[in-house]
Automatic annotation (TrEMBL), chains A, B, C, D:
Annotated family: Belongs to the HIBADH-related family.
Domain 6-phosphogluconate dehydrogenase NADP-binding stretches: 10-169
Biological process, per Gene Ontology: L-valine catabolic process
Active site residues per record: 178
Pathway in which this enzyme or protein is active: Amino-acid degradation; L-valine degradation
Protein name listed in UniProt: 3-hydroxyisobutyrate dehydrogenase
InterPro entries, per the entry: 3-OH-isobutyrate_DH-rel_CS, 6-PGluconate_DH-like_C_sf, 6PGD_dom2, 6PGDH_NADP-bd, HIBADH, HIBADH-like_NADP-bd, HIBADH-related, NAD(P)-bd_dom_sf
Length: 305, 305, 305, 305
């Protein structure tokens, strides 16, 4: 039995997948009462094992909750959960805090936040970085948009699941910032693949090249941690057939959201849009389910990478 | 008067610009006898003040030298210096060591190395990173291609001018690796500019966005050190009107060399080639002489960046 | 007084701008009774001069109409006109034919078509090509999506305003096809600009180069008609300071819609997306209001183009 | 026996491949005495059957020739044929006319032209368009750089092999123009593939879409003649498994030469460089030997195209 937190909130947690499941478990460990729901019975059972109370529906889960958290795949799921006649916002009492950790379109986040505000419900968009490992270890980074007062209230909960919190601005700002980071990441991974393939095709050893770049101006998470060339970093997805990690199609989704955000304001993001196409081509080549660093194989061809 | 190094070489140093000048001075400080030459009399006079012996020509400078170093702007200068009937290689005795620190086409480096080998002269291509600050402080990184034995002999000299040495392979490998790093750098800087402009156009503060990205998966030298958005990093060129730093046209040159190296082997470098075009457009927009991080203004427009 | 058409429809025409105005006038000329509305009183007055009946509102205009046509700037205007409680669809009797000639998102066109179908109203998306000259001359091309029976009924009206009709498929297919064409056009114009600038920078005369390309495999509407290099085609916008023609920002809008359509299905459109960014950069450089062929100045720099 | 032409030249023809062979045969048909050479004995035998005199070497072929023509794969072959101590230019008498029809780097063409001029030999670079079908039918287009007087002398010969002659300027201008055209063509083909794939993924019939585009502003040789979608044009390579036509790797080579020409003058050719990468990716995907319109399969994925 976990100790009760001093200022324990009653949390409803909707969406118990690879990210949401461990996050909910960490809330339980920190002493919060968590009522959970997921369409998957297996996910729900696993959350119950971890100490959450399994609810038969999202509506049942939020009954009596002071905070509602959600971790869902895409904008349409988040809008469906909260908006409309059957949506949660129509049932939540004023004063409830909603924290959505999904990565979705900023415009969607803003739509939900507006609807929430109209009912006296505070809303934070709080997408995360750190992956499934960070979710399990409770070392996620939260990238937050919304009112400072709502964030202050959320901090103890976020602290149970993560290590860093960045506040970027009002509603949707967390989503925008996450997309900016991931757009940069998608480009950096692909150009690192280009650089390693170019070096290899001139006879260089990708390990030596990576070692040099990792301490030079071309350094990045792609050279140092998730190196896309097989064998350079034994613990990277590239060294186990690009299994696990952050899927190509998830990067493709995030880049698509970034492009949408750019279209919305007419921004020029030429490298970001080209990278989206590279991941789309990587998917067409049959690598949609592999780690996104498998874009290495797109630019190096079957012989390399 | 500087102390004499135990195994002092007689060094001829050709090319005393913003990089070569301080490098030669550091060799003198370490106790080496340095005979120097540059077409600019001012540069030559400055080297003499630092303790080098000014020579009236490149040919005169290499008279009696056991090691010849060069730091020149482009492939054609290096080929002109070493090759042909009037070139240095026709005059150097077997056993001389040549270290070219210029950033040039790998194919050029290989041509000179082959001609050197044919005369019993060992050749290293050893382009550097670290900029003018690193040259002055003696903290450069050398990215080396050539025979291991030649590199062993060069190490005491390189140690007088820099801190790190990476050996990437045979003749030209240093150039290839430098170009791979700088291609990645050019792309990373531009996509960082895109990300900051996208965030700003959605109302985010580029400082907050940069702070988040700098500790996330989108991190890079561009977010942490040479941030392209004015005011984010007070010591970065962006915060002083993009003055100083690494010029747009130098990045354009290096990306051009990277593309040439890609054309040579038929490699796919889509992001690298797009970045070359962005720096070319930045030049056409009148920012060729500014720091390469001024590509921020290309993607953000006059209002931003 | 115009002659009455045999099978004259009572047409309501909403949106009397540079395209809609002349289109409505051509309907009148062909003997149709046209009731027209536009938010601009000047536009409305001009339509009245041409023989249309000016209505005080869109709702008033459709009173008694058997066919409703619209020509509006963007998706949101079309959705606002037809959908929702105050929208036209809530008032139109079953059996009415709606023809929307605006260029909008296929998804928007499909939303309106679905809402129309639910009320027994037939809907065609029928974006046009041919520009303001084609609208005035009655020589437009209609690119149509929707039911064949609805198109059959629409043909006499379309014949009064244009010369060619292409039927591409069901609801939204006209929009998709128009965007495919304009995406190709945007890319073709920009690469023609690149080719002419490359030739010119090697000393070639863009007129001679254009003349050759216009009868070779690189030929296109951009080499033959709307050549982007000033002076090559006297009647092209490039030869009058890029005034008139099809604005950069309209091309930017269409490319944005094409990218949205690509994001919707996960399609790879690398050249299309890069072109969108070139027109976005051209806008940032201050040429948003000029003809889209002014992208020539982006790739040629101030000296060229 | 062919009739003798009034002003018959004695022509040496070097390079009797798929293009050069039929070109030489057409010269014979027009009454010229043609001495031919190729490294392939089969090609040489075929030329002899067509009425040419087979020579045992290039040097033997030019013995007594007033005009030397060449049709070779790449810059290095052309430079090797003409330059250096064993090259043809060292043997040709002043007054000889050299016509090189190879597609090579403009800088190479200029090097050979300069060496020729130094010996009183006139040189034309005259790359062709029209493919093997045009070579056989004698309907090629010649894209010429060099002195007008040299072109005047060449015209009767060119007329025997082709239908159109474009004079673009001095030495190398023919090569530059050919590369400009082919850069545009490579981009146009790929974006047409993008447009057809985008339309198809929204349910449109590529035949209907192509028919519309072929008479609209997005029209090109790619929509009208060499349509990249299988089945749209029965006679196009796409309709026979992308066999025959203009190979992907030849387009890749031409785009590489165009990029080199752009690097030489610092030109911005963003779409051209991206297209080069698409054809490089298409080669890495195993389609290097197919017609270049097989880039359709890169952007449409295995299901489409």
């Amino acid at each position: 039995m976990a100790p009760h937190a001093a200022s324990a909130e009653r949390v409803a947690f909707i969406g118990l997948g690879h990210m949401g499941g461990p996050m909910a478990a960490n809330l339980v460990k920190a002493g919060h009462v968590v009522t959970a729901f997921d369409l998957s019975e297996a996910a729900l059972a696993k959350a119950a094992e971890a100490g959450a109370i399994a609810a038969p529906s999202a509506l049942a889960a939020v009954e009596g909750a002071s905070v509602v958290m959600s971790m869902l795949p895409a904008s349409r799921h988040v809008e469906a959960l909260y908006l409309g006649e059957g949506g949660l916002l129509a049932r939540l009492p004023a004063g409830t805090l909603v924290i959505d950790c999904s990565t979705i379109a900023p415009a969607s986040a803003q739509r939900v936040a507006e609807a929430a505000a109209a009912r006296g419900v505070a809303m934070l968009d709080a997408p995360v970085s750190g992956g499934t490992a960070g979710a399990a270890a409770g070392t996620l980074t939260f990238i937050v948009g919304g009112e400072p007062s709502a964030l202050d209230r959320a901090r103890p909960l976020l602290a149970a699941m993560g290590r860093h919190v960045f506040h970027l601005g009002g509603a949707g700002a967390g989503q925008v910032a996450k997309l900016c980071n991931n757009m940069a990441l998608g480009v950096i991974m692909a150009v690192t693949g280009e650089a390693l393939a170019l070096g290899a095709s001139h006879g260089l050893d990708p390990r030596a090249l990576s070692a040099m770049m990792a301490v030079s101006t071309g350094r990045s998470w792609a050279t140092e941690v998730c190196n896309p060339w097989p064998g350079v970093k034994p613990e990277a997805p590239a060294s186990r057939g690009y299994a696990g990690g952050f899927g190509n199609d998830l990067m493709l989704k995030d880049l698509g959201l970034a492009i949408e955000a750019a279209l919305q304001v007419g921004a020029a993001v030429p490298l970001g849009e080209l990278a989206r196409n590279l991941y789309a081509l990587n998917r067409l080549a049959g690598r949609g389910g592999l780690d996104f660093s498998s874009v290495q194989q797109l630019v190096a061809g079957p012989a390399g990478g």
